[in-house]
Amino acid sequence: MANKYVTVTAPVNIATLKYWGKRDRFLNLPTNSSISVTLSQDDLKTTTSVCYSKNFESDALYLNGNEESLSSPRQQSCLKLLRKCRIEKEEQDPSLDKIASLPLHIVSVNNFPTAAGLASSAAGYAAMVYSIAKLYQLDLDRSELSKIARQGSGSACRSLYGGFVAWEMGSLDNGSDSKAVQIAPRAHWPGIRAAILVVSAAKKEVPSTGGMQLTVKTSDLFDYRVKQVVPARYEEMKKAILAKDFGVFAELTMKDSNSFHAVCLDSYPPIFYMNDTSKRIVKVITTINEAYGRNVAAYTFDAGPNAVIYYEEKDEDIVLGTLHEFFGSVPGWAKKSGKSFSVPRKFP
Ligand code: DP6
Questions:
Q1: Is 117 in a helix, a strand, or coil?
Q2: Is a pLDDT exceeding 60 seen at residue 74?
Q3: Is any ligand 1 atom within 6 A of the Cβ of residue 34?
Q4: From CA 107, how far away is CA 64, in angstroms rounded?
Q5: Do β-strands 45-52 and 4-11 pair in parallel, antiparallel, or remain unpaired?
Q6: Membrane-crossing residues (predicted)?
Q7: 18 lines ligand 1 (CB under 6 A)
Q8: Is 22 exposed, middle or buried (CB count within 10 Å of its CB: 0-12, 13-18, 19+)?
Q9: What is the number of H-type helices and E-type strands within the chain?
């Protein structure tokens, strides 16, 4: 039996309607549905190669050149689920090579800072699950694979698709209806751009999992957010995406970022992800929007101080020009690639 490997890439996705809260932490089932935009393959992404061999002693993971543990329950549940699918395939077709029991080596590289609130776990788990599914030649569609990736990291389920993606929270206790679906491919609204402002590349102080558990347990606002705010916003945002209505999409995106950081602040003890530079970015975007009398750009912040700014291509000069004016004197680098423009910058 020849050794075989496959290589895939999975881009980062940035939520415009945030997932924050689990109703089942073992199956990674969320307390609300969420929506994200998957960045283009030219931007932030994880590249993963996976290989099986009877000569390997055990499964192993190499991340950015260093061997990492592969023993976390989340990693193990993804591997177990994928192996189970391969075993079923081998049982159905005895002519197939028996590879499900062979050790795997997984080699992953991120082209951006890991665990800095730039959705590295999303791209990482999506790439790991997709690469092993390809290696095992599993006949599972992306929504099915998203249920496996979800068990690695919730937001990872959305990176199985490009374009505009929803994670439907589902209602079943076994999680079989908690999956990602594509709202629209990237080609539906090709003019959308994302600029990533890297305020800090340091590892986040409060990891998402612990942070959201604290919020669920202690925030009084949280119940209001998941029951009253997010369900309506989820429908409105899907509509805005389908209608390519940037003004509404931008407003909902900014409001949801605010709402997510509000429940973080309402947690006890409070969680602060945004810093003073993040707040300056909010001010600058708000000022641009007020100056033009319409939503030219939308900010959103995840579990860290870094900003993602969504805007339309036609407004690129306004948005990047203004950001450059305010923050451009700070050393950094800019990269123009294909269809989207990233401006990761380090701020003092
Ligand atoms: C703020 O997916 O990293 O980025 O499921 O515990 O791994 P786990 O959490 P994770 O949380 C992401 C939180 C967020 C919002 C989002 O991406 O929807």
A1: coil
A2: yes
A3: yes
A4: 8
A5: antiparallel
A6: none
A7: yes
A8: middle
A9: 9, 16
Distance CA 227, CA 231 (A): 7
Confidence of residue 4 (pLDDT cuts 50, 70, 90): confident
> Are β-strands 34-38 and 29-30 bridged in parallel, bridged antiparallel, or unpaired?
unpaired
**Strand 104-110 vs strand 60-63: parallel, antiparallel, or unpaired?**
parallel
What atom in ligand 1 is closest to the CA of residue 152? 7
What's the token pair of residue 83?
């192996």
Length of the chain: 348
The pair of three-digit structure tokens given for residue 90, joined into one six-digit string: 């081998």
User: What whole-number distance in Å separates Cα of residue 239 and Cα of residue 248?
Assistant: 9
Question: How many angstroms is it from 301 CA to the middle of ligand 1?
Answer: 12
Of 17, 19, 204, the one to substitute when testing ligand 1's pocket (max ligand atoms within 8 A of C-beta) is 19
Look at residue 28 and tell me whether its pLDDT is greater than 60.
yes
What percentage of the chain's residues is helix, strand, coil (to nearest 5)?
40, 25, 35
pLDDT tens sequence across 305-348: 999 999 999 999 999 999 988 887 543 433 333 333 344 333 32
Give, in order, the Cα–Cα distances in Å from 88 to each of 50, 91, 136, 298: 20, 5, 11, 46
Q: What is the mean pLDDT of residues 179-201?
A: 93
Q: Are 46 and 108 spatial neighbours (Cβ–Cβ below 8 Å)?
A: yes
Count of alpha carbons within 13 angstroms of residue 116, beta-carbon side:
19
Reduced 3-state DSSP string for 162-183: CCEEEEECCCCCCCCCCEEEEE
CA atoms within 13 A on the CB side of 95: 0
For residue 38 and ligand 1, the question of a CB distance below 6 A is answered with no
pLDDT at residue 13 is higher than 70:
yes
Phi, psi (degrees; rounded to nearest 5) at 155: -65, -15
Residue whose token pair is 């600029």: 195
